[in-house]
Amino acid sequence: MTTPASPSGQQTNLRRVFYQCQLGKSDLDSLFSMACEGIPLPQVKISTTAGETLFWKSSLEELIESVSRDVPEIHEDWANLTLQADAASQERGVQIGIDKERTEVSVSGSDTTWAYGQMARIEKFLVSRGAVFSSPRYENAVTFGFLIFLVALGAFLLIHGVHGDTAAECVKRAKNASTNDVAFSVSMVAAFSFGFLFLFFQFLKRRISRARLKVGADISRDSWWSRLSNGERISVVVVPLTAIAALSAVITAVHNAWGK
Question: What local confidence, expressed as pLDDT, does residue 179 receive?
């Protein structure tokens, strides 16, 4: 944000970055209206970049109409949106930049109380729309690390258990295994099944809480289920059932191989 020249000789500049904001049409209208409050005679510029073209208007409605007319292929799937509102005196200003990953807010004003108050109001609004203060990339890194651990553990057990035995020798050795080996095998399958389900629901959590920008429609806030696509809803039912079925099949096979 370009710091405006303040006739008063001082300027308070605040900047915050938020992640996972879910903003629909009515949210954007409320947010932009709030951002302009307290700015005398605000000079408003709302803009977006579509492809190589920058569009800007003084209102969101006009901008949506312009983009829909000139770039109809993007529909409501906008990649970015920016609000710039400055006082005619250049003593107060707000800039809000929104994209698919984060929302950046900058507030400047010669009145320190107004600047901090305006930032607090915008922050409270964004938090009510799902905003968090840290990037989800850190949680993604932890989940990815857990996935690597499961794969590495599975590969180790597979390689460690292969010694060039024939199928008959493997079956014979399996039948001669102790009950502790049976319990270990079942527990490992259970661990992998629950680990897989953990990764699946972590992925689902990312999908539900991901940043969203919809300029032509509102975002449902009824429940997490309503925010899923049809394909995701099917996977919520199918994937756990598949994991449970696989675990049941392994337990049944072990039971048949070792007897009661």
Answer: 47
Within 8 A by CB and 6+ apart from 90, the residues are 4, 5, 6, 7
> 216-253: per-residue pLDDT in tens?
888 876 665 556 666 666 766 676 667 667 666 666 66
Tokens representing 129 are 């729309």
For residue 72, give Cα distances in angstroms to 45, 100, 164: 22, 19, 62
Nearest residue to 95 via CA among 118, 63, 128 = 118
Cα–Cα dist 121/109, whole Å: 15
Token pair in block for residue 231: 């394909």
Q: Is residue 260 predicted with pLDDT exceeding 90?
A: no
| Higher-scoring residue by pLDDT: 178, 86 | 86
82 within 8 A of 97, measured Cβ to Cβ: yes
d(CA 175, CA 168): 11
C-alpha–C-alpha distance, residues 254 and 115, integer Å: 67
CA–CA dist 60, 28 (Å, integer)? 8
